[in-house]
Design brief:
The complex is a heterotrimer of chains A (356), B (262) and C (299).
Chain A: E1 2-13, E2 16-27, E3 31-35, H1 42-50, E4 57-62, E5 65-66, E6 77-80, H2 92-102, H3 107-120, H4 136-148, E7 154-158, H5 166-183, E8 186-191, H6 194-200, E9 203-208, E10 211-216, H7 218-223, H8 228-233, E11 238-246, E12 251-254, E13 257-260, E14 271-277, E15 283-284, E16 292-303, E17 307-313, E18 318-324, E19 337-342, E20 348-355
Parallel strand pairs in A: 3-8, 3-9, 6-7, 7-8
Antiparallel strand pairs in A: 1-2, 1-4, 4-5, 9-10, 11-12, 11-14, 12-13, 14-20, 15-19, 16-17, 16-19, 17-18
Chain B: H1 2-30, H2 41-48, H3 50-83, H4 89-101, H5 104-114, H6 127-156, H7 159-168, H8 173-184, H9 186-200, H10 205-209, H11 215-225, H12 229-261
Chain C: H1 2-7, H2 9-14, H3 29-50, H4 61-65, H5 69-102, H6 107-121, H7 126-136, H8 141-150, H9 164-188, H10 192-200, H11 205-234, H12 237-243, H13 250-260, H14 266-297
Helix pairs in contact in C: 3-14, 5-9, 5-11, 6-9, 7-12, 9-11, 10-11, 11-14, 13-14
The chains are: A alpha+beta (356), B mainly alpha (262), C mainly alpha (299).
């Protein structure tokens, strides 16, 4: 049973669409991320759910109730902002208590709830501090506590980690996810960081230019991108230009070397196809010869610590792949011949080929 | 949303009315000197009045002298405090704010007690001495504005590195101050200078009590004795203030372009 | 004098490089000499004089004598004019600044308002009095137009430009712009996210202002009001040109005292000046303290 329903949502500014034909059903307790580049409409959609923007068309239902025309303060939502947006004139405890105070909850209940929230975010001793005395990570945790203290129906997070250091970002994203699981609160999380979306979400909505490109769980989004945009935006991807040899049986040639695709192509004659390969799907100089193989030369080797990134030039196409660092094994050197191999199923066909 | 914007417009329009009506009225009044027609007669009378020319010229000279004294006083001090005496900063800042605490009328009262013709330093005893005292008094009035402008300007550039770079090239202290630091805070200094000019040119209290032949007392005198000329003078004074503020904006914008070009 | 002292800055600059000893403080000696001679000493000699009798002995008599009706009423009218013009100026200035900053108006409105405020806040003194005489004086444009087209004579209501409210209205011409100039940065510091955060937490617009925006702004508001108060309190030129000496405010009384010893006691004059320093000093001190408070939050 879906808890949050977004039906045919549209938002236009003048003649330009910020969001177009947005449809989504979120079940209770689900963690859904909106992922996309800046200006893709993900924040506008979130702000329509919050009530800060009024949709041009479409409707938003929370728990079966149409909230499209409700003001933000009537929607019972919790929101966390990129800028933390803590009230600077209030202590941490007063910030967390704010939603309860305006809801006229009895003082004892407020006190107990604030203590509970501060414990939940691991800052029980900082209740009397002011926001300016806290680090960015601490401030954002307080903002999270403040948002969930009044027990909102839905939690909205707008790029909450973008202003933080890389290390804190990773620890905090685990913390947010843990808190969300513990409370079972339905959550929409807006981010442009694919790693964040992939690691935290139950489902991801990938958006581009105001439209939904794909909705799916992280595994699907990463491994079976349905559009070229999703494939290139999520993860790194090797793009290969190939000539169709025999469309029906899926035989194509990459720089003159023939491989077989996981499925046949709808064109019969000669044409061009765009293929994609994830770096981690490729093995370098494999001993067993199953799957597809392509020969080339090592073009560049970058030592990145635990991982070594290797670029192999086939002829016109270039393939990047990662191998783990191995103390007993010297990395290959530039100019050496190399063979890359990959399972047939790992090849993604991005554009349906066109007849030449 | 629509309603609040309407309210904003209404507020602004009412505010504009309060500020523009006196200006319009003053312009209108200043044109009425000749009975039955609008003319620039009042302006002609004022501008050809030898006392106007004398007092305005005098006040302009005093204002320029004030600016020179202010710059020579403030730039080295602000520079030195930032470079070498950061711990003195609160003290110096407090002193620069004192003119806001001590009203000009009190200040000039003190001057008259300290520097009267029978004191150890009889500045008010001679015309030249009065000029000096007036200039220094105006320098105190301008101090808060000048210091803040220059201090902000200095903070915007890295004076420590600039100084060290100049020192490593063998520059002497006067060279560093006048050829390196001053040109880099030119905009701040100019802003402070124009503001000083606007404050000082029509100043009444100090000039009047020092019996200086300045523009402010002249304005007051005309106001007490004439009908239309004061309006013309008010418009002239307003235009001078406007010009000073306009010049501050112009040099500020020029600086931004200069920065962007780098 | 200053010129001479000035040149000593440069040699002083080289001194600190001597090992072990620091003479860096010599660099601000010219400034300090200037400040002492033309700022601190003039004020100090009045303060000292306020506590001396004619023979130079210490006394509190002058301070006690300040509490005679004519002097008290001068202070009191001054305080009332300054308070009224500060309160009204702050209120109107706040609404104008708020309309320009968050009223959804074009950017050009804000730029114009700021430029104009820069000009008007410095358009004080004698010319300002002239402008208001030409507007609201007995033969002023607004006065005559009201009589001609509305049949309404504001002077028949008891209004007089050369009175308390006339002075307040005139002072507003520089008080409002000063408020706008000072409060606009504070309004810029109010982030839109705070209003949005408050509304997602269930707060109404009124609750947001009551619990968040106003508490954040009030140190700036109060502080600016104190600055406006001091600004009006020390002003004399406008009042003098407008009312001559018919309105008995403290600075005009002091002006008359300096001119002709109307109190017949020079030391009472020093006490009068001392009283003014105390009042402007208190309001400025509070202003600086409050500004520090608000800056701490808005960092």
């Amino acid at each position: 049973m879906s808890f949050l329903d977004i039906v045919n949502l549209q938002k236009s500014f003048g003649s330009a669409y910020a969001v177009k034909n947005f449809n989504l059903s979120v079940v209770r307790g689900e963690f859904v991320s909106f992922l996309g580049p800046s200006g893709c409409g993900k924040t506008t959609t979130l702000r329509m759910i919050a009530g800060f923007e009024h949709p041009t068309a479409g409707l938003i239902r929370i728990d079966g109730k149409d909230v499209t025309n409700l003001r933000p303060n009537q929607r019972k939502i919790g929101m966390v902002f990129q800028s933390y947006a803590l009230f600077p004139n209030m202590t941490v405890a007063e910030n967390v208590a704010f939603g309860l105070k305006v809801a006229r909850k009895p003082a004892e209940e407020v006190k107990a709830r604030v203590a509970e929230m501060l414990k939940l975010i691991g800052l029980p001793h900082l209740g009397d501090r002011y926001p300016y005395q806290l680090s960015g990570g601490q401030q954002q945790r307080v903002a999270l506590a403040r948002a969930i203290a009044p027990k909102p129906q839905i939690l909205l997070l707008d790029e909450p980690l973008s202003a933080l250091d890389a290390k804190i970002r990773i620890s905090l994203r685990e913390e947010i996810r843990a808190v969300q699981r513990e409370l079972g609160i339905t959550t929409i999380y807006v981010t442009h960081d694919q790693e964040e979306a992939l690691s935290m979400s139950d489902r991801i909505v990938v958006m581009n230019e105001g439209q939904v490109e794909q909705i799916g769980n992280p595994f699907e989004i990463y491994n079976r991108p349905s559009t070229r945009f999703v494939a290139s935006f999520v993860g790194t991807l090797n793009i290969l230009r190939a000539k169709v040899v025999d469309g029906a049986s899926g035989r194509v040639a990459v720089d003159g070397q023939e491989i077989i695709l996981p499925h046949g192509l709808p064109v019969s004659g000669a044409g061009e196809a765009t293929l994609a390969l994830r770096p981690e799907a490729i093995t370098l100089n494999a001993h067993d010869a199953s799957g597809s193989r392509l020969d080339g030369t090592i073009d560049e080797v970058s030592f990145l610590g635990s991982v070594i990134r290797i670029r192999v030039r086939l002829q016109n196409n270039i393939v990047t792949l990662d191998t783990f660092n191995n103390v007993g094994h010297r990395p290959p050197e530039r100019g050496q011949p190399a063979t890359i191999s990959f399972a047939r199923e790992d090849v993604l066909v991005l554009d349906e080929p066109q007849a030449a | 949303m629509k309603n609040s914007r309407l309210g904003s417009w209404l507020t602004i329009v009412l505010g504009a009315a309060y500020f523009l009506i006196p200006l319009i009225a003053t312009v209108e009044f200043s044109l009425r000197m000749k009975r039955g027609e609008y003319s620039l007669e009042a302006y002609r009378v004022v501008l050809t009045d030898p006392r106007f020319q004398a007092t305005f010229g005098y006040s302009t000279l005093i204002a320029l002298a004030t600016i020179v004294v202010g710059v020579l006083l403030v730039v080295p001090t602000a520079y030195w405090v930032q470079l070498r005496l950061p711990r003195w900063r609160p003290v110096v800042e407090f002193v620069t704010l004192l003119p806001l605490v001590i009203p000009p009328i009190v200040l000039v009262f003190g001057f008259l007690r300290l520097y009267n013709s029978s004191s150890w330093l009889p500045l008010t005893g001679s015309a030249r001495g009065t000029d000096v005292l007036l200039t220094l008094g105006y320098a105190t009035l301008a101090l808060p504005y000048m210091y803040r402008a220059v201090d902000t300007g200095l903070r915007a550039i890295d004076i420590r590195t600039l100084t060290q770079a100049a020192e490593s090239l063998g520059a002497s202290w006067p060279t560093i101050l006048f050829r390196v630091i001053l040109p880099n805070v030119r905009v701040a200094v100019l802003s402070g200078a124009f503001l000083t000019f606007a404050i000082v040119i029509g100043e009444f209290t100090i000039a009047s009590l020092l019996n200086a032949p300045a523009f402010g007392p002249y304005l007051q005198l005309i106001g007490a004795n004439r009908a239309y000329e004061p309006s013309a003078l008010a418009i002239i004074a307003f235009m001078i203030t406007w010009a000073c503020m306009g010049l501050i904006q112009v040099v500020g914008r020029g600086a931004n372009r200069y920065r962007a070009a780098r | 004098m200053t010129q001479q002292a000035q040149t000593s800055t440069f040699p002083a600059g080289q001194v600190p490089r001597l090992p072990g000893m620091s003479f860096a403080w010599l660099g601000i000696v010219p400034f300090m000499i200037f400040a002492v001679m033309f700022l601190i000493a003039p004020a100090a000699i009045l303060v000292v004089g306020a506590f001396q009798d004619q023979t130079g002995a210490f006394t509190l008599e002058n301070i006690v004598n300040l509490f005679q009706p004519s002097i008290m009423s001068a202070y009191w009218i001054s305080i009332q004019v300054s308070t009224a013009s500060a309160l009204i100026g702050a209120l109107i200035g706040f609404f104008l600044a708020y309309a320009a900053v968050s009223g959804g108006l074009p950017q050009s409105v804000r730029a114009t308002l700021m430029t104009f405020s820069g000009v008007a806040s410095n358009f004080a003194g004698v010319p300002l009095a002239f402008a208001f005489l030409a507007t609201l004086g007995r033969t002023g444009l607004v006065t005559t137009l009201l009589v001609k087209y509305a049949g309404f004579n504001i002077y028949s209501t008891g209004f007089n430009l050369l009175s308390f409210w006339g002075l307040v209205i005139t002072y507003l011409y520089f008080q409002i712009p000063l408020m706008i100039l000072i409060i606009t940065p504070a309004l810029d510091g109010i982030k839109k996210d705070w209003a949005e955060a408050a509304s997602t937490l269930g707060a109404s617009r009124l609750e947001y202002w009551r619990y968040v925006a106003f508490p954040i702004l009030w140190p700036s508001l109060m502080g600016t009001m104190l600055l406006l108060f001091a600004n009006a309190f020390g002003a004399i030129a406008t009042a003098y040109a407008l009312t001559g000496s018919s309105l008995n405010i403290a600075p005009i009384l002091l002006y008359a005292q300096i001119r002709g010893d109307v109190l017949h006691n020079p030391h009472l004059g020093y006490a009068l000046a001392f009283g003014m320093i105390v009042i402007t000093g208190l309001s400025n001190g509070l202003y600086i303290w409050l500004r520090g408070r608000s800056e701490r939050w808005l960092r």
